[in-house]
Amino acid sequence: MSLDQQSPEAVPAPDVAALDRPLLDADIARLRADHPDDAAFRRAVVDRFRAALGDGRAAILGDFATDHGGLRCASRLAALQDEIIRSLYDYVVRYVYPLDRPSTAERLCVVAVGGYGRATLAPGSDIDLLFLLPYKQTPWGESVVEAMLYVLWDLRQKVGHSTRSVDECVRQAKADMTIRTALLEARFILGDAALFRDLATRFDRDVQARTAREFVAAKMAERETRISRAGASRYLVEPNVKEGKGGLRDLNTLFWIAKYAYRVDNPEALVGAGLFTAKEFRLFWRCEEFLWRVRCELHVVSGRAEERLSFDYQRRIAARLGYGTGPSLSGVERFMKHYFLVAKNVGDLTAIVCAAIEEREAPPPATLDRIVQGLKRRTRTIAGTSDFRVEFDRITVTRRDVFEHDPVNLIRLFAVADVYDLPIHPDATRLVTLSLRRVDRALREDPEANRLFMDILTSRRAPETALRRMNEAGVLGRFIPEFGRIVALMQFNMYHHYTVDEHLLRAVGILAEIDAGRSREAHPLANELMPTVAGRSALYLAVFLHDVAKGRQEDHSVAGAALARGLAPRFGLSDEETELTVWLVEHHLDMSNTAQSRDLNDRRTIETFAGVASTPEQLKCLMILTICDIKAVGPGVWNGWKGQLLRTLYTETETLLSGDSPDFDRNTRVLAAQDQLRPALPEFPDDEFRAYVARHYAPYWLRTGLANRVRDARLIRTLWQQEKGFASDVATDKFRSITELTIVAPDHPRLLSIIAGACASGGANIVDAHIYTTKDGLALDTVSVSRAFDQDADELRRAGRIASGIERALRGQIRMGEMVAAKDASPKGRSAFELHPKIIVDNAASRRHTVLQVSGVDRPGLLYDLTRALAGLSLNIASAHVATFGEKAVDSFYVSDLTGAKITDPSRQEVIRRVLGDTFERASDRAGGAAPTGAGA
Hints:
Layout: H1 21-34, H2 38-67, H3 70-96, E1 109-112, H4 114-117, E2 127-132, H5 139-154, E3 159-164, H6 166-175, H7 177-184, E4 187-191, H8 193-208, H9 212-230, H10 248-262, H11 269-272, H12 278-302, H13 311-320, H14 331-361, H15 370-378, E5 379-382, E6 385-391, E7 394-397, H16 402-405, H17 409-420, H18 426-434, H19 441-444, H20 447-457, H21 463-473, H22 475-479, H23 481-484, H24 500-515, H25 524-529, H26 536-545, H27 556-570, H28 575-586, H29 590-597, H30 603-612, H31 616-631, H32 640-658, H33 666-677, H34 686-695, H35 698-703, H36 706-722, E8 727-733, E9 738-746, H37 751-761, E10 766-773, E11 778-786, H38 792-810, H39 816-823, E12 838-842, E13 850-857, H40 862-872, E14 876-885, E15 888-896, H41 906-921
Parallel strand pairs: 2-3
Antiparallel strand pairs: 1-2, 1-4, 5-6, 6-7, 8-9, 9-11, 10-11, 10-14, 12-13, 13-15, 14-15
Helix pairs in contact: 1-2, 1-3, 2-3, 3-5, 3-12, 6-7, 6-8, 9-10, 10-14, 12-13, 12-14, 13-14, 17-20, 17-21, 21-24, 24-26, 24-31, 26-28, 27-28, 29-32, 30-32, 31-32, 37-38, 37-39, 37-40, 40-41
């Protein structure tokens, strides 16, 4: 029988075999005889305690490595700690502060509180102790407490402690909810038992009685604060095992509330109190066991009290717990799917208890309002159905057999809740979970059930909320088994913040915001397009399904399209809507990839993309879906720069599809750009303007906008007038979340590499770069870096430091390789990922250049190394486009050889692949070797 199948009764009782206390006490007695000097005796005793504690922990953790029993490990560690404290107390009162005839004032009780009070300790946990003293006391008690604490500290134990009388405990518990919670779990360890009984009686009578409502409210508010701090979703891919949503603290809170309100002493009593069924209690135990197992493993592999299950540890813990690779999921993905399913179960159990407590503790209506409120607020009917009603402002069932009588009600319940904009009563949700077997093939094929589902999905109210309720109740995954496969499925990378199902639900929520016009400032184009979308249902279904084939061996876009083709007709979509849904799912990554990794000023890019999104309807829907997809990845992933790239790609493609743009030839377009610039530069005399225009090659005029042309002309003029070899300009753009740095300097093959190095050493992330060379040998390079500061002044200072570093490197005053090497410490967690470099040499993506698309594990200074390698290969870089997806860097370089031609020779292409691949595989020896003259590289 696996650990997950064991019943609570099957768990071995905690034992203290890891410590032979009589032997320890006998050893201390011998040490006293061998060391008449008090100081020497104390040192010897501390050493003996240290050995006993170390040996005991080693034995417990050794057993844990074999049996992986989380609760057993935690219970044994707490029992070991108890025995150490008892032996320590005996040592102090026998040898350090002995009393022949103690008075009633010379009493002491040692109490475990907090997590230690629950008789569980993780390997790296603190121990929380309450030293309980009588109201009238002598210095003896404080001396004993001090002596015990000093030994515990010498043992390098993390001790939280307090010394109070019973009166002080009661008074502080009334005033402080944290102290009240700690005392709720107080556990007697040793000393005067009468003191502890007095504390328990007084706490129950003076604190706990008649304050359940206050305590429940405080704990729930505390939970909300804690969860918002740790991450609001229980589906964060790096969850906090202790504090996160669905973690151990939620189980603790659940039991605290039940214990306070129902006066139960252990979780088993929740069944007798009517809060849980026997089955639900077994689920409670399995959740607690699993979370304790993971927490103990996390402390062991990290060597400290680490509570965040980061990527660093996920793979190692999965291997330790025996999660092997399956047909489609790796071991770590199987482990994390199990984790998230447990977190979901914790949420279900918490909802059950909180609902029961809420009803139990709900205040009665005021006397004058009782009749009205009883009719209006407590219960009211719902038009058009006799199966549901509103009770306490929540949708609930009218009888226990509503789902048995009509299984469509399993979908209708969520539709009704959405229509009335009301939450679902936990009792109704509980009944849903008990009726999931009725979500069968017949229900999936029922036209009314599918119509209701589409009503929910395309609702103009809160479809994300309704779908999440369905998902957490288990209905969504059973009604759509294709969706059920990705429930709680994580993607083992640093890009996606949530599990796949959570990502899809959030994407639907973002689409609903755009549909309702609530994000006009953030997405003006999408909000303008949405009312014109003809296939609204197809768009919603595509957003809901776009990643539904994740976790399969085949390409998830292609596999997802095949799934969508089968599902769309079931949901009532027409043939035309079905084809649009299928197309959107299959191509849902194309617009994002093109916008972030291709030169949008290159005509071939637009023509190629227009060959994919070949109708205005496809283009509109894909634009909106792409925004939803990127934003739903996680906080901070979407920014104005990506939005601008998508808008540019949409506008250029839409113009091409509409056929509205004049078909100018190349020379005509160059002359038009020059004519447009002339009135914008009134300070330039005609001869100076003609000389300036003659400096640039045709690609510059074809690829730059008017604002950039004006900036560049004035910057180059400054270089002329000041007779300097370097000039720079900085422009911030809050809307696009970037800062543009433009450099003018004599052309140098390593100039872009130096710029990349300066940005890396300055902590700036380059997202785009355009490189131009004038006919008289000047380089005009513009790089866009991600914005790091809210204030423009801070951005300008950072960019100024970067520009200064570039100038100093060009003058040979600094070695850029050394600057980058100083910054290049491996980021935390990157070693957890295995990603082999991939180098694509593409001569079809551009008419004039070879496009090199390189991808691999990102690291600081990577772009510096790549651009330096390209310079070493004697390649000219016309533009660079940099994208990062978590741990993965995807960089595209538009290059040509020194004659301006594409790289067509197969042997040279192979050399490029090998050199760039090696750049990913090993860190460059940046600081070594001589720098090129004047380059400072």
